[in-house]
Amino acid sequence: MQEFKLVIDGKLVATERHRPVVNPSTETIVGLSPLASRSDLDHAVDAAKRAFPAWAAKSSEERAAFCQRIADRIEANAEDLAHLLTLEQGKPLGGLGSRFEIGGAVAWTRYTASLDLPVEVVQDGPDDRIELHRKPIGVIGAITPWNWPVMIACWHIIPAIRAGNCVVIKPSPNAPLSTLRLVEWINEVLPPGVVNGIADDNDLGAAMSAHPDIAKISFTGSTATGRRIMATAADTLKRLTLELGGNDAGIVLPDADPKAIAEGLFWGAFINSGQTCACLKRLYVHDSLYDAICTALSDYAQTIRIGDGLAEDSALGPLQNARQRDIVAACVRDAVEGGGRILIGGTAPDGKGYFYPVTLVADIDHGAKLVDEEQFGPALPIIRYHDIEEAIAKANDNPSGLGGSVWSSNVEAARKVASRLECGSVWINRHGAIQPNAPFGGVKQSGIGVEFGVDGLKEFTTIQTVFI
């Protein structure tokens, strides 16, 4: 059984304690994750702090070249990393699974490497000039989740180091191995201390967000954890980027074509078995199309094979952990007890693995957990509406505001509805299609700040205004 190690100051560091990482398809042990101590965290932060002056002093062109070399390293080892990712996370190798995720990590890394933040001239007159300079912040503490562990690690690490910062990253204990392997490879490219990787048993997050030598926390995860990070970061007035939970609403207008949009609706809701912050999690359908949408989605869902992620014909895998499977199952039970009608799925299979079937629940409304709370799994409530004002009001009647979508044959009509949705990103006739050149972030309780593109890169800088 392989014992993975921390990566601190360019070296692999063994730990006394380990945590088994379980394959969610088979419930067998994949490997042993190291469990860092508070001393290990301090060591990693100190390494990043010592590496910062030299790294920040490098030219923008030099840092861009380093990031491109990281992309080359990931690309050269993509299949090995995808295999490890599938073993610990459960998603299929093919389709929109692990190979897709590693490809996304490479694409985000290359695009972010291409960005720059040149000096901006605010004023330039005969007697004076005002310049706006973007400067790196210092040591960034990155805390990442288990649903897209490699790609989200790149979302945190690459813009941070591209802007001149150093990083200490802590992945989720549920799926830390692929991130630790990624950090190993990054350290074959970068100077020691620029990127450090630790792992824990969910006991070092508060220490990171309170650490006096960490200048910013970049976090992707639940809203509840985001609140705790804000609280513990307050004493040191850390900068924060928080990409938190979502309960994304999609609205199907009465002129939509059910068969034409069924595939898009399905993957908007069920990519990664629904374990994505910006998945479609509530679907509002006009009464005139309700039955047709239910039928079209059910028909498409029956064509999707769920199985072990290592099987090349699996389109979806299991939930990543037993706790998440139980949350989804509880939401579905509550929906049925409240009068919801199961169109497909609804019962976890017997046997090994944290599998839960694609589940569509009709005749459901607000007040059910499956509608009001983020299920983060393969169960979609389909809610009937009669008037578009009713649909918009219900879509906005939630504390989350990450993403939303409108589905229609009339793009202009959809655009008008989309503009009224209270969310950070909105799509027309698709859902969740994020890309590296478009800023992404939430409103309301779905987060603070944005990721991706120039705006995301700026999040890892401070402004210095120079008056000449």
TrEMBL record:
Cite the entry's keywords alphabetically.
Oxidoreductase
Pfam families to which the protein is assigned, alphabetical: Aldedh
Report the superkingdom from the record. Answer: Bacteria
EC number(s) on record? 1.2.1.3
Catalytic site:
243
Q: Which reaction does it catalyse?
A: an aldehyde + NAD(+) + H2O = a carboxylate + NADH + 2 H(+)
InterPro entries (UniProt xref):
Ald_DH/histidinol_DH, Ald_DH_C, Ald_DH_CS_CYS, Ald_DH_CS_GLU, Ald_DH_N, Aldehyde_DH_dom, LUC3-like
The enzyme's main class, written as a single word, is: oxidoreductase
Indicate the segments forming the Aldehyde dehydrogenase domain, all copies. Answer: 17-466
Similarity section: Belongs to the aldehyde dehydrogenase family.
Name of the protein in question = aldehyde dehydrogenase (NAD(+))
Q: Which organism is it from?
A: Rhizobium paknamense
